[in-house]
Amino acid sequence: MPANLTPQYRAAEERYRAATDPDEKLAALREMLAIMPKHKGTEKLQADLKQRIAKLAHQREGHGGAKRTTFDHVVREGAGQVALIGPPNGGKSSLLAALTRAEPAIAAYPFTTHMPQPGMMPFEDVMIQLVDTPAIAAEHTPPWLPGLVRSADLAVLVVDLTEPTLLEQVDSTLARLMQSRVQLVAPGAATSLEDPAVAPVRALVAANRAELPDAEVGIALLADLLAGRLPIRPVSAVEKRGLRDLARELFTLLDVIRVYAKEPGKPADRERPFVLKRGATVADFALNIHRDLVAHLRFARVWGAHTFDGQTVHRDHPLADGDVVELHA
User: Fold this and answer.
1) CA–CA separation, 27 vs 73, rounded Å?
2) What is the predicted pLDDT for the residue at 54?
3) The domain 81-253: what is its CATH number?
4) Looking at domain 256-328, what is its CATH homologous superfamily?
5) Angle (nearest 5°) at CA 27 between 104 and 85
6) For a surface tag, which of 39, 125, 207, 242 has the fewest beta carbons within 10 Å of its beta carbon?
7) Helix (H, G, I), strand (E, B) or coil at 100
């Protein structure tokens, strides 16, 4: 079975080959494993990547010496992983607390967050993983942080609209990421960068503290600085303004669909949808249930917006968000 590796995988592979730092190599390997299509044709490649990741992680710890403490890998959960990044005191931890049940340390002084803090954000009937991260600043940026951003599905640059040095902070944050071969790009923008070692990460800006009177001035300045390079979304972690729209946009940008399983003669299981990449087929859905099911799959029945109720389809039928699927082997 062919591997059918995606252009995104090939780009990550190129970054691995170009990397000279062990942290960058490990981040690229983990990204390759995360975005690789999971099917029988990639089983050997998956195993090889896992072995290389384990070997490199062991080498980074040293042989008998002190272990290097790194946090460049957070186990993915939910429909996708979104990294919350930004300058000191931009409001990342406050936004995480407002959107999830996580309880990060929140204080009025910089560098309160020292390690990644994940939390699960509910959106309708799925959960999206948000990861709060330490501040990106000239004084100190953890060496593992760019790897975490690089491997995330999306990034949200969180800034404080009332910060007097707002523009300098944004410029510095983007520059620091570029030094680590990470470039934030607008969702939907062309991602063919001149340097294949630079990882394009889809991102938007969460302009925090939008409830304050002078926030509009900050938004105008930010829009002028970015000149359309990244979309800006005004939010308020304190008043929870704009958070519902932000959650919906993040789900849309993850480019996934929800599919509901149905056993013959029984109602659909609406409690636990399967989350698949947009463009997934009936065969992909079957593979998520059990890999052996694909080999014996004869047909499926689908209830959805693009089919009539219970329509019989073949394994290559593309699924849509909200489809109910009944598999027949």
Assistant:
1) 8
2) 82
3) 3.40.50.300
4) Beta-grasp domain (3.10.20.30)
5) 35
6) 125
7) coil
Identify the CA nearest to 113 among candidates 82, 81, 145, 138. Answer: 145
Strands 182-185, 199-208: pairing is parallel
Q: What is the DSSP string of 200-269?
A: EEEEEEEEE-TTSTTHHHHHHHHHHHHTTSS-EEE-BTTTTBTHHHHHHHHHHHTTEEEEEE--TTS---
277: Cβ contacts below 8 Å, ≥ 6 apart = 255, 256, 257, 284
Residue 289: is its pLDDT beyond 70?
yes
Split at pLDDT 50, 70, 90, the class of 295 is confident
Domains in the chain: boundaries: 7-61, 81-253, 256-328
Distance CA 297, CA 276 (A): 18
Q: Which residue has the tokens 């829009």?
A: 223
- Give Dmax over CA atoms of the chain in angstroms: 64
pLDDT tens per residue across span 145-196: 888 998 899 999 999 999 999 999 999 999 999 998 899 999 987 666 667 7
What is the spatial distance between Cα 153 and Cα 155, in angstroms, rounded to a whole number? 7
- Comparing 142-151, 207-216, 249-258, which segment has the lowest mean pLDDT? 142-151
Helix, strand, coil % over all residues of the chain, rounded to 5: 35, 20, 45
